[in-house]
Amino acid sequence: MSPAALRLTLVGVAGTSRDILLSVYALQAVVRADPNLSRSVDVETLHYWYVLPVDLDDRAAAIAGDVIASQPDVVGLSTYTWNFDVVARVAARIKEQAPDLPIIFGGPELAAGDVRGGRYDALPVDVVVVGEGETPLLKLLAGFRERAGQVPTGVPRTAWRTGDRFAWRELDDPSVDLVPDLADLPSPYLMGLVPDRLLTGGAAQVSIETQRGCNFRCAYCLYHANFASLRYRDPETVLEEIEHVSRHGVRHFRITDANFLSRKAHASHILEGLIHRGVRMSFFLEVIPSYLDADLADLLRRYREADEGNVVLAGIGLQTTNPTSLQAIRRRIPLSHFSRAYALLDAAGATVKTDVIVGLPHESRETFMATLDFVAEHMRTGHTYLSMAVLRILPGTELETIAGDAGLVVEPDSDHFVYETPTLPRALMVDCLRMSAMAVRVFHTLEDPDRIALRDAYFAVHDRTGVPHAKLLEKLSRDALEFLRGSGADYARDDFPRAEHFWSFEVHDLIPDCIVLESLGRVRKDRGQGADGTRP
To answer: 257, 276, 330, 387: which has the fewest C-beta neighbours closer than 10 Å?
Structure first.
């Protein structure tokens, strides 16, 4: 590398304590592979694990210190929903110490409409990249080289600072400056750019991308936002990447595609390759039920049965069974497709992760309870994983407009969470949140034998008494409220703050098995029973 090489520092902060943020290494790879820039740009990557909200300021200061110590000429910050707060603070800290150091800000969090609307004007950054980053970054770096470090202007799908605002070019056309063929992209794994320290030890979960784009245009999602069509990577390269990280001790990978099964031949090639190559890893994939058939399910079964460590976790985004809500969010998938997918995945021995959203447009307490009835009936067997979520209105999604028209209220000072809706006022929403917590408590089993035993006890009571699932969960949630009342737990507070945190981290510890079992034991099949299955 020439002493006069431009020094670029790329910074990534993962959204969890085990995931690796692939974007910084993917961008490093395209710079290294570019014949015009590989000798004139020196790229350093800095990767950090999840930052807790209470640690934001201190960690941001430390990360900024690392960036300054790397002596860059340009800084690139990779941002998305789960790290936006800390990355924005890092940018501010960098500018405090080095006001003239150019900062490029990019990632799926950034939306063209927000650039035009001034949402990023106060951010202390010099360039914003909208959408896919590889081609714009190469053009920006070439501009920095040609203009002796001055911020380049005129690059498509970028906005550059002019005083206290941004100017831009071609922000809204997703077809501009995309990589024509993903097979041409270099692999950061196979180039050895992802450090061994992140791969070794077996705890990490790596991201594997096999395609970009989505068959659906769900209003709440960013997967499809910048891609007019689907593009696929070479499946053999994908298989080589998985073998590479496996040799380094990684035991878990996540397929980042919105719908891994979008092209049957592509998915089959990869699944058959995993089986043929004897890969021994667990992995996660998103499944849109309409694309799962018996052949693909059988490949998942064969892979899972090849080794006891080959756990297949399949994510299914049910979200709701309310047709009016599904129409509003552009996600109309027949319920019969979900039922078929559950049956196929159960037969394949996959662990199914079911996603349900609370607070969608036009959702009421009654329609939410109907969703609980449908979901619960598909939780009877296997290692189940129930994921409840409060609706989050992500910047740059169609849901921003839909939410405004539908009168959804966003919680103040939150990460875009919906607080209440015209059809689900806050008091009723809190009821739904508590029932959601109890559904997670009963149905989120994974491989835990105690949780599976509790779930089996629940179904024994349900089948014996005939009390509908939603009514039974309502009773359990009320009994849990009485148990926790006065404890200070979020669940027992009138507003149920941080509900998702409670579901994810506290529900199994704060509501013990004995309380659930006692509540189930009081349910009776009797003509004189109340609507929730208890005696009046």
So the answer is: 276
| Domain membership flag for residue 198 | no
User: From CA 133, how far away is CA 27, in angstroms rounded?
Assistant: 8
| Inter-axis angle of helices 449-465 and 469-484, nearest 10 | 120
d(CA 498, CA 441): 16
Name residue, tokens 């990280």.
Answer: 245
Which pTM was predicted?
Answer: 0.91
The two beta strands, 127-129 and 205-208, are unpaired
* Cβ–Cβ under 8 Å, residues 68 and 11: no
Helices of type H across 182-306: 196-199, 235-247, 264-276, 294-305
CATH number for the domain spanning 325: value is 3.80.30.20
Range of the domain at 304: 204-448
Rounded to an integer, what distance in angstroms lies between the CA atom of residue 345 and that of residue 356? 18
Q: How far apart are CA 473 and CA 6, in angstroms?
A: 60
> CA of 531: how far to CAs of 457, 471, 474, 480, 522, in Å?
20, 7, 10, 18, 13
